[in-house]
Design a protein that fits this description.
The protein is an alpha/beta fold. The chain has two domains: about 5-125 and about 280-340, Bordetella uptake gene, domain 1 (D-Maltodextrin-Binding Protein, domain 2, 3-Layer(aba) Sandwich); about 130-275, Periplasmic binding protein-like II (D-Maltodextrin-Binding Protein, domain 2), CATH 3.40.190. Helix content is about 40%, strand content about 15%. It is built from 13 helices and eleven strands. The strands form three sheets. The chain has a six-stranded mixed β-sheet with strand order 2-1-3-10-4-11, sandwiched between helices. α5 packs parallel to α6 (about 205-220) and α8 (about 265-275) crosses α13.
């Protein structure tokens, strides 16, 4: 089924998947791969998808062209549902999506995604940063001042967004009263709301912050970074990156405000939602195994390509952390079984999602 056909169907439409023959050498010679994103064009996901595809093609035998197909909508589910149940599993349609893996299993049934059914190729994890208008309340001269301004309005995408949960959990831990306004279609719309004074706080990936928010919001004197959550390594441990100095790590800000180390279900939840794939590269279920093996191998080759790494750092000012398919599937499995394996934290997150879904 083509993307055009799918868009004519209801959001949650599905299609039967046909088995495909084994791939032969030169399968992609003269062909085009469509790389579907689940957010709008021009945002950080779109930029990263285009950068990765530009270099990935050089590692795939046959050097196929890539076409990026943004498919926003449905609470970020339209593109994911297309890839999960309607896209042909023929190797010519892949996904580069923002999955919210860590929070999807905790929301309403209709918003859950069986990510374990995807053919996972790999994933990306980036640091997260919360930022605020500097004229909130009596004004913010430094991040710790956020605890002195009274109630703040958090702008976000939807209650299951890991970015939104970052702000809401962080502010709760710091003792700040919050009002939550969801429904923004992308990072640029969210920042515009802050510039108009319709909200006080937003959260995004550090790459997006450095590319757009720093230039258009912070440097002109409209706002400041509040805290960062660092990227994690393959063992789930925070990466101490001295280059990530846009705002203090959350645990340091917490210690400054509370005079103690953060702990408990809320802090565990804050770390958990960021210990997952920020972006995930997938193929539709049923894509041939030998082709998936080739795509996984060339994905990893691209992640260490010096030209790609120089290109991505130049354009998004960030060194991404990549995970192979096996590590990505481990994170998916942790999220899928969270209610049974980590019930206290799962309940905290589910209650928070329900609270801000009202």
């Amino acid at each position: 089924m083509t993307i055009r056909d799918f868009l004519a169907l209801p959001v949650f439409a599905t299609a039967m998947l046909a088995a495909m023959p084994a791939m032969s050498d030169g399968f992609y010679e003269g062909e085009t791969i469509t790389l579907v994103t689940n957010v709008g064009a021009g945002g950080s996901t779109d930029v990263q998808a285009r950068l990765f595809a530009k270099h990935w093609k050089d590692h795939i035998e046959g050097n196929p062209d890539f076409v990026i197909e943004p498919m926003p909508g449905g609470g970020m589910l339209l593109g994911i549902n297309y890839l999960m149940g309607a896209a042909d599993p023929d190797g010519f349609t892949l996904g580069f999506v923002a999955p919210n893996v860590t929070t999807r299993p905790l929301g309403p049934e209709a918003q859950r995604v069986a990510y374990e059914n995807f053919e996972v190729i790999g994933s990306v994890n980036v640091p997260v940063i919360a930022y605020a208008r500097n004229d909130v309340g009596s004004g913010l001269k430094e991040p710790a001042d956020i605890t002195k301004v009274g109630e703040v309005t958090v702008a976000g995408f939807q209650p299951r967004s890991s970015f939104d949960m970052n702000s809401l959990i962080g502010l709760e831990l710091l003792g700040v009263e919050t009002k939550y306004v969801a429904g923004f279609g992308g990072g640029s719309a969210l920042m515009a709301a802050l510039l108009r004074g319709e909200a006080d706080i937003g959260t995004t990936g550090l790459n997006s912050y450095r590319v757009g928010i720093m230039e258009n919001f912070v440097k002109p004197g409209h706002g400041i970074g509040l805290w960062t959550i660092p990227a994690v390594d393959e063992n789930g441990q925070p990466i101490d990156d001295p280059e990530v100095a846009d705002a203090p790590p959350f645990h340091e800000l917490y210690k400054q405000v509370r005079n103690e180390e953060p702990s408990g279900p809320a802090y565990d939840a804050l770390m958990y939602i960021n210990n997952g794939p920020t972006l995930m590269v997938v193929a539709p279920p049923g894509t041939p195994e030998d082709l998936i093996a080739e795509l996984r191998e060339t994905f990893l080759e691209t992640t260490t390509d010096a030209e790609y790494l120089a290109d991505v750092e130049k354009q998004v000012h960030l060194k991404p952390v990549f995970f192979n398919a096996e590590r990505t599937k481990q994170m998916i499995d942790r999220a899928r079984t969270l209610n049974e394996s980590e019930p206290e934290m799962a309940k905290y997150l589910a209650d928070l999602i329900a609270k801000y879904s009202e």
